[in-house]
Each structure stands twice: as structure tokens, then as C-alpha cells.
Amino acid sequence: MSEGLLRRAGKAVLLNAMGNWFGMISGMLSLVIIARLLSPTDFGVFGMVLVAFAIPEMFVSGSLNDSLIQRRDLQPGHINSVFMQSLILAAAFWLGISLASPLIARVFGHPELEAMMQFFSITLFMGAFASIPAALLQRDLRYREITIVDILGTLVASIVGIVCAIYLRSAWALIFMEMSRRIIRLVAFTAIAKWRPSIKTSWAETVELTRYNSLNMATRVIQSVESAFTRSAVGAVQGPAALGMFNMATRLLEQAKAAVVQPFAAVALPVASQTQHDLPMLHRAIEGALKLAALIAYPTFIGAFVIAPVAIPVVFGEQWIPAVPTIQIFFLMGLRTPTSAFNTGVLNGVGRVDWTFKISLVGLALTGALIATTIQISLEAVALAVLAQIIITWVIGAYAVKESIGFPMHRQIIVGSTSLMASAIMAVVVWALLNSLSDTIHAPVQLLILVSVGLVSYPAAMAALAPAFAVRLWRASIMAGKGRREEAIALVKGGA
Question: For the residues 478-487, what does the mean pLDDT come to?
Fold first, then answer.
């Protein structure tokens, strides 16, 4: 395997990051506006729709397509086989949801859910058609095209969501927003990948994918059940308002992960699949990407945790103040997302889906036990239970990576340690300032001051803790500004 793959991967990371950062910014802006127009209950009702579709969407457009990325000798028959399976599953789940939607609406106590679910079920067929070209683009590390599509989809969805929220003032605005994003992805990915649906499959090629797909599908099912169980428990026991706050916390975490973690984690599966027979190169790719991810992720999540009490009411409105403690706990979850996301991608990339299956089983068992003991206490207790589960499964995942490719567990723990310490220093500085600011200063001004101090204190702490790395980072930023992106990435990878 040549060094060219790592350079392509680095370029893919940058392109993916650009798209995700743009998506985060535009998504957050639209979320701010929509959150002021809609109530936590509206978000909760939309969350109920997502709960109902979590497992069907995983089957249709999630688990099967990883095999197309992972397989080294991909043939048209493999692609057609996955497409036909996805299409059959989409039809089956569409029929099931159409029949079950009245019952689900009665269970949750919201009659409007029936129409919402029946309408949203169209997305299952969209997923069956869109996921194949998306997987082919990801396999080839064509993140330039993926980035453009994601930016376009986010822009269109944001506009649709805001307009619908203004006129509808209901959860339907969120339904139409999500639908519009998926339509853009379907049309654009199909056109760019130049893939055309076909039913020409062979039994032999279908069988070749069976073991990987069956274990990967089972893993996704378990993960979806885990997520659906948690949200359903919150909605059923604590009510739609609590579910709305839980979904808001989840969405903020996902937005942050998409911006600071996903650009690196997204390439883990295709890179691992192509370097699985060159472990030294795979180790280099993992460690370098983890360092880069930690450099951005740690200050983002720790900083968001500290300023949340000021930021949430300023940005989303005072009706979201009760959600602040839950949101803060979710930001703490983000500290382990870089390594957790890489672990999953690497294990799937080298074909060790048996490990990801076992980890998901442990996660489900832990979630069931922890949620059962905390659901009656408070929303914050539920969030802490989720945090505990994430920490435990991360440890298991780190061990699995060590056993599968020989990447040491202690490297996962200490990689990016300088970034973590610098982020802790930044947090102390910002927290001290937060407690010393006068109540007479308007909240938006306080937020601006806190963010500004954080942006200054983090690089200052990095410079004090690792001056050599700070110099390399400065040189890398200059290179990136001149268009020498690959050299910039290589320079940063050598840091702490």
C-alpha cells in the first residue's frame, strides 16, 4: 500500500471537515431559529418519529452498505445484491409501519403521529436508492463530491425547516426539513456516482457478503434498539417535554461530533479496509488521525460544557434552561467519541464485525440495566447512565482493536494528552471568569467574552505545554493557507 492512500485520506479528511463544519454552522443557525419557533414538545413528537424509524432505517440504508466499502474485490453483482436486499427491506418496513402507525400513535398519546409516520415512511425507499451511490463514493474517498452534496442538502433543509416552522408551528416543520435533505442526497448521489439500479444478482456473490452483512446488521439492530429503548423510556415515563430536551442534547452532541470527529472517523472504514494487510501503515494512519481529532474535539466539548449555562438560554431561548444539565453531560460524552468512532471503523474495516457485534451486545445490556435504575430519578440521571455505558464500551472497543490489529490500548488513552491538558486549563480559566462576571452584563455579551477567552487560552496553554508542537501547528496553518494541505497534515500528525 502506497503513501498515496494516506495522502488521499488526509485530503478526504479536510474535505469532509469543510462540509461538516459548514453543516454544523448552518444546521446550528437553523436549529436556533426553529427552537425559538417550536416547543420542546414539538421536538419530542419528532423524536418519537425518529424512534419508530431507527431500526428500519438501519436495515435499509445502514448495515448492508458497509460491506461494499470493506470488500477489496467489489463486483457489480455485490452492489446489485445489496441494493435488492435494501429495496425488499424498505418495502417490508413501509408496510409494517403503515399498519402499526395507528397503534404507535395511541401508545404515545399523540394522534398526529399516525400521519407523520405514514408520510415519513417514504424515506425508507429514498434510503434504499441513495445509500448505494453514497457507499461507492465513500469507498473511493470521493469526499469532494460528498461534501458538496451535504452542503447543498443542509442549506435546502435549513431553508425548508425555517419556512415550515414559521407557517406551521408544529413538528411537521421538522418532518419536512428532514425529508428535503434526503431528497437532495438521493438525487445528487445517484447522478454523481453514475450508478443505475439493477436486479441482476448472483447467489454466489450474495453468499459472499452474508457473514459480514449478517453480523453488521445484527450490530446495527442492537444499537438501534438501544437508542430506541432509551428514547422510548424517557418519552413514556418522563413525557414528551423531557424527550424533547433529551433529543436536543443528542442533536447538539451529534452536530459537534459531525464537525470535529466525523471528518476523521468517516475515512477509518475505507482506509482500514485498504491497509488491513499493512499494519504499520494502519497504525500510523490511526494515531495521526486521532491526534488531529483530539486537537479539535477536546477543546470543543470541554469548552461547550463550561459555557452551556450561558450559551443555551442565549442561543435557544429560556424555555431550554431545564435542559442545560443534560446537555452538559452529553458534551462530556463527546470526549471519548474520537477513539470510539475510530475503533468501530477500524474493526469493521479489517473485517472484525464479530467484535463490534459483541460490544453492541454489552452496550445493550448495560443500557437496559442502567436506564431501568435511573429512569424514575431524573433526566440528568438517565444522561449519566448513557455516559457510563459509553465509557465501559469504549474500554472494550480499545481492547478489541488491540487484539485485532495490535494497536496498543495505552496509545488510545494517551494520544492527544497535550490537547486534553490544554483544554482543562482553558476550562478552568473560562469557569473562573464565568463566576466573576457581573450580573449586570447582558448574557449575550457574557457569552462573547467567554468564547473569546476560550479561543485565546487554549492555544496559549498548548504553546506552554508543547512549544515545539505549537510552532509546527503555526507552520501548518501557514501551509494550509497557501494550499499545501497535505504538507500541513503531515506536520501536525507528528505532534503530541
Answer: 56
Locate 275 and state its grid cell.
491497509
Q: CA 46, 37, 17: angle at the middle one, nearest 5? A: 70
Question: CA-CA distance, 73 to 81, in Å (whole number)?
Answer: 15
Rounded CA gap, 339 and 395, in Å?
10
End-to-end CA distance of the chain: 26
CB-count exposure of residue 378 (10 Å: 0-12, 13-18, 19+): middle
- Which residue, 349, 339, 358, is CA-closest to 212? 349
User: What contacts 220, CB < 8 A, 6 or more positions away?
Assistant: 58, 59, 62, 63
Contact in structure between 245 and 379 (CB atoms under 8 Å): yes
How far apart, in whole angstroms, are the C-alpha atoms of residue 267 and residue 44?
A: 33
d(CA 440, CA 449): 14
Could you tell me which residues come within 8 angstroms of residue 218 by beta carbon, excluding any fewer than 6 positions away? 357, 360
Which alpha helices (H) appear in 277-323, and where do they start and end? Answer: 279-316
Alpha-carbon span 418 to 423, nearest angstrom? 8
The amino acid that residue 267 corresponds to is V
Q: Is 480 helix (H, G, I), strand (E, B) or coil?
A: helix
Burial class (CB in 10 A: 0-12, 13-18, 19+), 463: middle
Closest CA to 455 of 478, 480, 423: 423
Taking only the tens place, the pLDDT of each residue in 348-396 is 777 777 888 888 889 889 988 998 888 888 888 888 998 999 889 888 9
Q: What is the DSSP code string of 379-399?
A: HHHHHHHHHHHHHHHHHHHHH
CA distance 474 to 457: 16
pTM for the structure as a whole: 0.68
The pLDDT value given to residue 7: 57
Q: Tell me the pLDDT band of 1, cut-offs 50, 70 and 90.
A: very low
The answer to whether 66 touches 239, Cβ cutoff 8 Å, is no
Distance CA 69, CA 253 (A): 26
pLDDT interval class at 175 (50, 70, 90)? very high
| Distance of alpha carbon 45 from alpha carbon 112, whole angstroms | 9
DSSP symbols for 58-74: HHHHTTTTHHHHH-SS-
Other C-beta atoms closer than 10 Å to the C-beta of 188 total: 20
